[in-house]
UniProtKB/TrEMBL annotation:
This is Uncharacterized protein. It comes from the Bacteria. GO terms for molecular function: nucleic acid binding. SUPFAM superfamilies: Ribonuclease H-like.
Length: 276
């Protein structure tokens, strides 16, 4: 079992898992200057901003559904309808999956849902999202592989692992043209975003055995102690013990993804022992 095999989540899992990716238009600022080098370490003051970065495209896919949903600022209904639809989708998700999701897509979208963006007239009025868990595949790479995986971008990982991914080269001017009305650029950028969603699901399936802290998956009527937390298949006892500083725990291994879990509750070990 290795990184080049993909392992699907048990179809009986009831959590709603949403794979998500966004594209944005960048910000524009006006700067006063005497000399070109003046701007080398210049901080962007909000008084000089004529446009803040904002999300313009969101593509998302339910893990167990084949279709990728496409949402854009230029859809019928404009930015208000766009954000409302994405918000409604995220409000129904138990787990969000994405590459660099925790430091990019999620905070960006939360900003888009609740704050006006300089340079766009829309003023959002959406309620706070209900709580959700996230799986950030970039964080998985960082924590589990560190410098053992020198290239951690979605593109680099997909090429390396043979995961089908986008082929288009990202052109930063394309979003400017799309926002201004270019149909060709709108379609190409949304296709690019959709490709990233599919690639992210591929990476998520590939990395699953290494996602130690995956949010718990639940299956109706199943003994939760023997369900693998990352793929929902049955985990069975192994002869190995997980050895912590003082206590040791029974260890289980998933029969599907071969990821390990440990049982933290063991009645025969309830006495409290600490090193002194
Ligand atoms: Zn598993």
């Amino acid at each position: 079992m290795g990184l080049t095999e993909k392992l699907a989540i048990n179809p009986k899992v009831r959590n709603r898992i949403l794979i998500l990716d966004v594209e944005r238009v960048n910000g524009i600022t006006l700067q006063h200057w005497w000399d070109r080098k003046d701007l080398q370490k210049r901080y962007i003051h909000h008084e000089t901003v004529i446009r803040e970065p904002r999300t313009t495209i969101v593509c998302a896919k339910w893990y167990d559904q084949p279709d990728v949903m496409r949402f854009t600022e230029w859809d019928k209904g404009g930015r208000g309808q766009f954000l409302k639809r994405v918000h409604g989708l995220m409000a129904r998700a138990d787990i969000l999956v994405g590459h660099n999701l925790d430091n990019a897509d999620v905070p960006w979208l939360v900003g888009d849902f609740h704050l006006p963006r300089e340079g766009h007239k829309h003023r959002p009025s959406l309620p706070p999202l209900p709580p959700f868990k996230t799986v950030d595949t970039l964080k998985v790479m960082r924590s589990q592989f560190k410098s053992g995986a020198p290239f951690k971008s979605l593109d680099a990982l997909c090429k390396l692992l043979g995961i089908p991914a986008k082929t288009d080269v990202y052109d930063p001017e394309a979003m400017e043209r799309a926002v201004a009305g270019s149909v060709e650029d709108r379609v190409r950028l949304t296709d690019y975003c959709e490709g990233d969603v599919i690639a992210t699901q591929g990476l998520y399936d590939t990395l699953r055995p290494y996602i130690k802290n995956h949010p718990a998956l639940f299956i109706d009527g199943k003994n939760k102690l023997t369900v693998c937390n990352r793929c929902g298949h049955e985990a069975e006892p192994t002869p190995r013990k997980y050895v912590a500083n003082v206590l040791s725990y029974s260890m289980l291994r998933c029969t599907n993804c071969q990821g390990y879990t440990r049982l933290s509750i063991e009645p025969e070990r309830m006495s409290i022992v600490r090193g002194v």
